Amino acid sequence: MNNRQSITSCGCSIERLLRQEESYIFITGAQKQSDTPAGKTYIAYSIRISDTETKRRYSEFESLRRALSRLHPTLIVPPIPEKHSLVDYAALQTRVKDDLPMIEKRKRMLQTFLNRVASHPELGRDHVFHRFLESGVAWSDVLHSPPLSQLPKNPLQMVVSKEANVQAHKYNMVLSSNLIPIPSATYVLKSPDPRFEESEKFTFRIANYMSNNLDKSQRKVIRRLGELANDYAELGAVYNGFSLNESGSVANAIEKIGQAVDASYTESAQMVTSLEGEFAEPIQEHSQFAHIVKQVLRFRHLKHAQMEMIESSLENKKETLESLQRMEGEARRLEEAISRERTIGRNAVDIDELNNNRNNHDGLEDMNDPNEIINDERQQQEEENGYHHSYGNNQNGIVSPTTTLHSNMDASYPPKRSSKAWASPVKMINAMGHSLQNIIDVDPEATRRNQIGKTKDAMDVLQEALEITRKDLSGSSTELQKELDRFQKEKIKDLRDMLIAYAKIHIRYCQKNLESWQEARAEVDKIAI
């Protein structure tokens, strides 16, 4: 059973509870805990689903979300409340984790996170999520066991789609090869998909607008409403004190005004709390959602870039193979030419050999003449002593007939050619080739064939990786488009609920204030003029 089947149904007790109608996950409390008596304390949040209850700390929520994002890089995993910045820690006199409003906010947003994951058609069926909700399970053991322990560090080294016909959510040997290029975030696609290109532009625009405008403005309004509530509390005390200086109907009227102002303080504080939980936090959540969608689209962009880079690498390997094969063909033709030249050289008759044979034949004939033998010996002796044979014979002015005959015979034949080092151009090229071979490579033919073999092996790996990546990109694009459509519907529903809640909060605030001020007016009308 592969990972996809396990995601479809694991049959555990938590999954059965989540499949029940009206199932809901509650965070019922937050308590300080410590692993050891003298150890560092932390806040543990109590999670309850039906009769099952467990406790998890904030860092475990954070690692759960990170694990789901690694397992499902094409799915939009809901956000969790952000950590406080160092400025927040420095600004508060007490530790931030002991701040009750912050803890209550985290409880609400972590509860929303768990229920969003549970209602997701695929994340809610992931057994890793079920293990997080299961009581008595050490979360560190889950993090170091399959499928999380089998995930590669780089999500591009695994298959994420159902259509790739390869085991998903697991380290893939082909995609993890050193031959497979890893694209950078700044890679520009050669053939981008217009649908996702438009989705990226829209998402970037929404994310920037929600973060830089809507979320900031809403926080500013809530902060000012909180300041206004504090001013109402102070003003109510002033009116109540002022009523003590008067008497009769005037004192009653002033006191009623003070009570109306106190009611405004109470309702303003209530409105701030309601806006924080029902409007500001959802706005903040969807601002985080926009950045999460950016990350998901970025992963798809990198997957597309990886496919293009594999195609480019495969083309380069093909060109390299063709070049090596051309070199191999040229080397074979040169070797055949050299072999033919050597064969011709062995069978051909050399002019030098003919001349040598002819001179040897004449020498045998001269051996029959005793005078010629004597003259040859005398000539050889004179040459050894550094004298020319003609000078030796003619030093007394006497020319012997034998010497004259020998001179005439020497003139009738050309002198013997000295044997040269390079009998033919082919021999010279062959010798130079061997010299260069000794300098550059001992066996270039074996090296070239080895390179051809390695190039073919690399092409096989790249071709297999290209087929896997193409199917994975196609399948993940389809799944991502479905996820974006689902999220868009959910976002519209959330925005509708947020706007309705925003209106109801203000209506309730206005109605309560209207009742208080109507009572104050009735009391003021009793003042006799």
TrEMBL record:
One of the record's GO cellular component terms: endosome membrane
Domain PX: from-to ranges: 1-140
Record's keyword terms, sorted: Autophagy, Coiled coil, Endosome, Lipid-binding, Membrane, Protein transport, Transport
Ubl conjugation in keyword set: no
Alphabetized GO MF terms: phosphatidylinositol binding
Topology of the protein relative to the lipid bilayer: Peripheral membrane protein
InterPro entries xrefs: AH/BAR_dom_sf, PX_dom, PX_dom_sf, PX_Snx41/Atg20, Sorting_Nexin_Autophagy
GO biological process entries: autophagy; protein transport; retrograde transport, endosome to Golgi
Annotated compartments: Endosome membrane
Main location: membrane
SMART domains per record: PX
Coiled coil, from the record: 307-344
UniProt family annotation: Belongs to the sorting nexin family.
Full protein name: PX domain-containing protein
Organism, as annotated: Circinella minor
